[in-house]
Amino acid sequence: MNVDLFDFTLPPERIALRPAAPRDAARLLVVTPEGLTDRVVSDLPSQLRAGDLLVFNDTRVIPAQLEGTRGSARIGATLHKREGPRRWRAFVRNARRLRDGDAIDFGQQVVATAHDRAEDGSWALVFAGDDPVELLLERAGRMPLPPYIAGKRDTDARDTQDYQTMFAAEPGAVAAPTAALHFTPALLAALELAGVEHATLTLHVGAGTFLPVKAEDTADHKMHAEWGRIDPATADRLNAVRAGGGRVIAVGTTSLRLVESATDQDGRIQPFEGDTSIFITPGYRFRGIDGLMTNFHLPRSTLFMLVSALMGLDRMQAAYAYAIENDYRFYSYGDASLLLP
Asked: Which of 56, 59, 105, 225 is deepest in the core (most CB within 10 A)?
């Protein structure tokens, strides 16, 4: 499909620079075949049914942005995928100043050597020393806010908490599964009281999620791989919910992509551990999920393509036009939508 079909104009003031407070006070646009309904996230228990199950991503964002020097050259790096105990694939700013084998000093006694530049321009960074890389990042790194936020204000201490979900447990993401940022213990308790269950899986979100689609046709776009895991007990729970007539509702496109990656042709969700580079566009047949809660995404992005595949391109174009006209807040710190096909 032509990528231009997924374009729209977003006024800059619609980009949220801070999350709603409290988190579940964010607005929620419910999108169904019957139409659009304005709600807030705390209304979610009334929008779901007893027996439904929400699937959350329990990945934890690491301070994956680094600033350093190679000689007199300033080098910026955003880690996006672990390739080994001390080796991470990274997108590098000022990469033209790097050669294979160059050492980058990120300060705080954190040094990495650059190797193996890939076709997408990324480099493998191998960190020196014996300290765990996670400890090195805590010393020298900062939270990797999306460029549409970081370009408008500095990262600060609030982001350390704001850009982490209440489910964050497994370190490894360089972007938050932002739909889950809206959840609070009180909301989770209300959902349980309403008979809505929840489960967790792990998908370590990579920085590739923010890369623009440069191809003119979706068939020519290559997705970056991300590592994920669904354990056997969780797969069994999801299958049991669907077999009992309940719906599996993914919270976030990361949860959706992993469940769909793990679902076989018969609609049964299998245990999964490994990389996925699934790319969902209109025409895709969903097999493992029955709905999606997600934030509002960038134009021409793979994520807007995904929601258009779930609900139909015309419906999502209309929903986004409505959200823009009615002052919904967009992107990672913005409001949410509940998509029920």
From this structure: 59
Instruction: Write the single-letter amino acid at 4.
Output: D
Q: How far apart are CA 335 and CA 323, in angstroms?
A: 10
Give the mean pLDDT of the chain. 96
Looking at the chain, the whole-number percentage of residues with pLDDT higher than 70 is 99
What confidence tens digit (pLDDT) does each residue in 167-226 have? 999 999 999 999 999 999 999 999 999 999 999 999 999 877 767 788 999 999 989 899
> Are the C-beta atoms of 146 and 65 separated by less than 8 Å?
no
- With contact defined as beta carbons under 8 Å apart, do 48 and 194 qualify? yes
pLDDT for 214 = 87
